Amino acid sequence: MEFSETEIQTIHALDGTQLVLHIWEPSSVKGVILAIHGGMAHGGDYVTPAMYFMEKGYAMVAPDLRGHKKEKVDLKNFDLYLTDIMDVYKWMLDRYADLPLFVFGHSMGGLIATVLGLKFPTEISHVKGFVLSSPYFKNAVPVPKILVILTPLFAFLTPRMKVPAEDFLDYLTHDEEITARHHEDERKGLRGKYVTVRWAHQIMKGQSFVEKHISEWRFPLYVVVAGQDKLADTSYTEKLLQQVIPSLLKFKKAEGNYHENFNETNRLEIYEEIFEWMNSVV
Predict the structure, then answer these.
(1) What is the mean pLDDT of each run of 10 residues along the chain (282 residues)?
(2) pTM tops 0.90, yes or no
(3) Is the CB of residue 240 less than 8 Å from the CB of residue 210?
(4) Which fold has domain 7-281?
């Protein structure tokens, strides 16, 4: 097990797609975390927070999202992410019955987690709270309006066309060891190198849904954003979250951080604050 997991499991989505689960489980489990990774990444990326929370008695389960292996990241429909996560959620309920359950989401995983909480509040009522890191509610690099307009057409005509994008791999964390691991994961095909126009279109649909419905949010929510984020628009996230009921929201802005707060050099401070918050909502 490459990322210090205690176990690897494979389950099947409704359409037969295999979902690999990275599991970090302490000998005595007092709570569980469903962790959703970011775009072009994989479940093993959660190894760093997983080791911390495992020491605190929390198991963490991080699936590899569909369409995120090899070079290309592709997705036919955003709802496939939601149904996959619901399958993982049900598997976790069977395995960890009656234990407190939290959902973590980083970047695109934060977007998926937010849409999940907005669309299925009753179905996931067992969730005690959500923790989001740099949620990908809007791209930090402005997309020309003409491309936004044409994306649905490109997604229909040339769905697997590569989206030209800058390489941000060296601007995810200031931790040089983790950056080196990211490069190695990309070399091995564990991280994607580019996204398709169809994937981009589906992500935009998810972002649009959050923008329209975020005021309906009803779960306890901890959000940490990065002051030096080159991927997710931090200012937009701050503005959007003003629509969340204040008593539900704990917000932190890590001014010196790049995109990956869970992997940054100040991560221990962030973990400790998250753990304290989790204890307050259980």
Answers:
(1) 94 91 98 97 97 98 86 90 97 96 98 98 97 96 55 61 78 98 93 89 96 98 98 98 98 98 98 98 94
(2) yes
(3) yes
(4) Rossmann fold (3.40.50)
